Amino acid sequence: MGCTSSIPKVYGVGRKKKMAIPQIVVFFPCTRTPVSIDLKRVLRGLIPRDLADRLAALRNQIILLATDTEGSAYIELQRTLSEYLSVVLGLTRTEYGLEELVEFKWRNLEDGRQETRLANSWFEVLLVIHMMAILTLSEVNSLMTLKDQPVSSEWIISVDVKKMAVESLLKAAGYLEFCIRRVLIHLPQDIKKKLPKDLQEDVLEALVIQSLGQGTEIQLGLAVESQKATLSVKRRLACEQMSYFNQAYFCLSGCSSINDQYGKKHMSFIKWKYLEAKAAAYYYHGLILDKGNEPSCHISAVCCFLAAEQLLSDSKKACLSFCLAPPITRAPPPWGAMKHLHQKIPQIAFRKSQMYGYLLDKEMALQTLPDLPDFQLSLRADEYELPQMDPTWDSKWENQSQTLKQHLTCFEDEMEN
Questions:
Q1: Alpha-carbon span 36 to 23, nearest angstrom
Q2: Do the Cβ atoms of 341 and 312 come closer than 8 Å?
Q3: pLDDT at 364
């Protein structure tokens, strides 16, 4: 999530080079990486040696790549995770009886001492796909931040990069949605209770919806920059963005994680983005109402502009609260739609309230804030499918030298010695 104690461990997923306050455009949890375990010894005699060697080699490669901060590490790490997933899926097959044999260990990069260990192969699958999602969100954040430009420089991101960011956000949402719908259901209740708070279903659901909301936020920015986009399109996108973040807030509000450091930080981010979206929605709603000919239309429009101005002010306070909530982070300069609205909302609110001030004084009863229209949400998470299981699992093995009972007995003897 960009904590000062793990930079650039989270952004770039690697070793700490120097202390810096990270800039957050896309919020995501701290990355977890596998902890080394002796897979070959645990699986000895139960599966072919080359298959056990491959499992161990791929898992160790993930650990090594997770410490690489070079730009190529992201692509290579995602490829290795997908390859490892195709092999480790075999451990989840009930006919092999290996689902609860291996105790898998993962650690949080924010705090290397915070380790999670569970003897369940579906837990390993969950953590691998979750890591793929967090890496994707991390990459979007990297795409949307300006590392080499001065803080005072104009914040410009190309249209192609923004479109790529939207696609990646939908992909990340697809990974997370798959974790919820297709992986968590395989975990026994006692295992679910031992999962870290940021892997609980409601938190994952909030992160899915938040990713869709941030994709809509980028789309709104593209619409504002386009001469072809109508006010109706901009209002719709702003209202959709607001709905996404409202749903994400609802998902998080019932979680126990909101009381810990990560949960509070996550909640403050969603509140900030919700207020920004609501300010934009009322601004564009006001512009549309102001096109009417009746005095009531102008009064309603002014109410929208004044509400947008107050919401914009509240969003700036919420942004500051998010940045100061531990771990300390930086917000980017206003970008996308907000780069435009930070100037336009105060200007229009002042000008229109001056222009129609006489109507406001005359028609006090009409000074009510109109409701925003409801729209069906447009963005959907990409559909993720597991890779094909490694064909080695389906091939006919030679009779292994040990039964599972013999293997466990041998393993216990080794532990005693």
A1: 31
A2: yes
A3: 58
